[in-house]
Amino acid sequence: MADTARIDISIDTQRPGAVLNKNIYGQFMEHLGRGIYEGVWVGKDSPIPNKNGYRLDVLQALIDLKVPLLRWPGGCFADEYHWRDGIGPRNERPRTVNSNWGGVIEDNAFGTHEFFEFAELVGAQTYINGNLGTGSPKEMVEWLHYMTSDADTTVVRERKKNGRERPFKVDYFAVGNESWGCGGNMTPDYYADLYKQYTTFLKAPENNQPKFIASGGTDVQTNWTQTLAEKIKRSGNVRMDAISHHYYTLPTGDWETKGSATGYPEEQWFSTLQQTLRMETFITDNVAILDELDPEQEIGFYVDEWGTWYDVDKGTNPGFLYQQNTIRDAIVAGLNIHIFNRYAKRVQMTNIAQMVNVLQAMILTDKEKMLLTPTYYAFKMHIPFQDATYLPVNLSDTPLYQHGDDAIPALSVSAAKALNGDIYISLINTQVDNAVEVALPQVSQVKGKLLNSRDMDGHNTFDHPDNIHPTDYTATEVNGSTVISIPAKSLMVLNLGQL
Ligand code: AHR
Fold first, then answer.
1. How far is the CA of 473 from the centre of ligand 1 (A)?
2. What is the pLDDT of residues 164-214, one digit of tens each?
3. What is the per-residue DSSP string for 352-369?
4. Measured between alpha carbons, how far is 140 from 173 in angstroms, rounded to an integer?
5. Ligand 1 contact, 74 CB (< 6 A)
6. What is the phi-psi region of residue 222: left when phi exceeds 0, alpha when psi lies from -120 to 50, beta otherwise?
7. Residue nearest ligand 1's atom 5 by CA
8. What pLDDT shows up at residue 2?
9. Residue 4, pLDDT score
10. Most buried of the four, 188, 383, 397, 466, by CB within 10 Å?
11. Whose CA is nearest to atom 8 of ligand 1?
12. Candidates 305, 368, 437, 477; catalytic one
């Protein structure tokens, strides 16, 4: 265990960096397990209180979270999704099999109109993932036309007949998902050619243009970024506004035995955080390629799937990817957010996987019951960082959390100037036992929230939904410096006022 001396922190307000796009806090909702059905959509006739079929408790929690962006319908599901299955009278929609996730029946009750109505209720922007794997250019072109156009075409008349007069607003549109794997096992070269073919024909009105996203690589891969940035020259009718990348945190790094969501030893607390921090290298390696091939900085690097992935909860359908969520997940979320902030020039959008009941969720439900996870609170505490401006931070020392022969930083810090002019600082102590003391010589008073836990796997349950929640934190200046003790296993977001 490391010694925890006092660290001086200064925030450089004179050298502001990039704007931290609010869409760094984007959410992902896939037709997977109970992510949408039960988690979001219960139908109008459900005994669970709902508005037009959307469960009210979840809806309110997402509104409170100021979710900026929703990605739908997948994931792997996207490349088997045929949008026409999800429009028209619900009782006439086809029943299909969700072959990616548990082989369950998909009754298509939640389709295009339900998604956009939900996004409007939440107040979020929209990210549609198109089907490259099993669709066709015609199918994708017509979907985009159906959603965005106001022309008097047969397809638009159909949308109007289905109850939506005005076009929907599509903010982002991706051509395929994980095309190296579940999206078709393609090579980057083959995908690049398909991407050009499809995007040549994808048309949306001038005032309703989405950003077009190419499906990129995963983990350590850089070959997708390299090939796509080299081969897809953005001119005329081919657009590529961003390349997406996926990286999941597995405690063991082994897909066969990933590690448990609760009841883990310190070794897996440590390895989970260590695995999370690899995100920074993956981003820097890919961004270095983009900096060379796209010096005008026109192509974004979007991490549109990230988060923890554990062995599923005992007794649950393995295809549903349901897992508990502890203080460790909140720390993982905070560390990732700090990394995204550092590369915000390119990383203008990310989606944690996934919003409700799947993987590193914000919200868990059990029929009519609902709970908010520690990850929900980590996101909520960072709301002031949405659209804030990055500020560099200097530390007088970088304390280490030593475990066996390995070490990671014991302290992670990120600061920003919020839209209202206040400076916010986010502080994470990764250690299991030791507090970290920091001094902020620039400020006389701080107020904010602290999220921590006595237990290494502290979490909320349906019987005790309030075990882990943020508490108020205040500190004042003593002898010219505000000193803060950051407890072990904790995340803090503090308002420092206007410096
Ligand atoms: O988030 C679960 C799955 O993980 C997604 O469907 C897929 O894109 C990724 O492999």
1. 37
2. 999 999 999 999 999 999 999 999 999 999 999 999 999 999 999 999 999
3. EE-SBSSSS-SEEEETTE
4. 10
5. yes
6. alpha
7. 75
8. 45
9. 55
10. 188
11. 75
12. 305
pLDDT tens digits for range 215-265? 999 999 999 999 999 999 777 789 999 999 999 999 999 999 999 999 999
Three-state secondary structure string covering 222-285: CHHHHHHHHHCCCCCCCCCCEEEEEEEECCCCCCCCCCCCCCCCHHHHHHHHHHHHHHHHHHHH
**pLDDT beyond 80 at 3:** no
**In whole angstroms, how large is the CA radius of gyration of the chain?**
23
Give the pLDDT confidence score for residue 441 in this predicted structure. Answer: 81
Average pLDDT over residues 322-339: 98
Centre of ligand 1 from the C-alpha of residue 393, in Å: 34
Decide if 267 is catalytic: no
pLDDT band at 480 (very low <50, low <70, confident <90, very high): confident
This prediction has a pTM of 0.97
Query: What is the distance between the alpha carbons of residues 221 and 239, in angstroms, rounded to a whole number?
Result: 23
Nearest to 336 by CA among 393, 275, 389: 275
Q: Which amino acid is at 246?
A: H
| Ligand 1 center from residue 240 Cα (angstroms) | 22
Residues 68-92: b if buried by 16+ CB within 10 A, e if exposed: bbbbbbbbbbbbbbebbebbbebee
**Is the distance from the beta carbon of residue 305 to the nearest atom of ligand 1 less than 6 Å?**
yes
**What are the residues whose beta carbons fall under 8 Å from the beta carbon of 343, sequence distance 6 or more?**
283, 284, 287, 301
In angstroms, rounded to a whole number, what is the distance separating the alpha carbons of residues 193 and 301? Answer: 20
Beta bridge partners of 98: 104
Residues 6 or more apart in contact with residue 37 via CB below 8 angstroms: 31, 109, 110
Q: Which atom of ligand 1 is nearest to the CA of 354?
A: 1
CA 80 – CA 95 distance, rounded (Å): 13
65 CA from centroid of ligand 1 (Å): 23
| pLDDT attached to residue 233 | 79
Q: Which atom of ligand 1 is nearest to the CA of 305?
A: 1
**Residue 423, phi then psi, degrees to nearest 5:** -95, 135
Neighbours of 105 (CB within 10 A): 10
**Which residues have a Cβ under 8 Å from the Cβ of 136 and sit 6 or more positions away?**
none
120 is catalytic: no
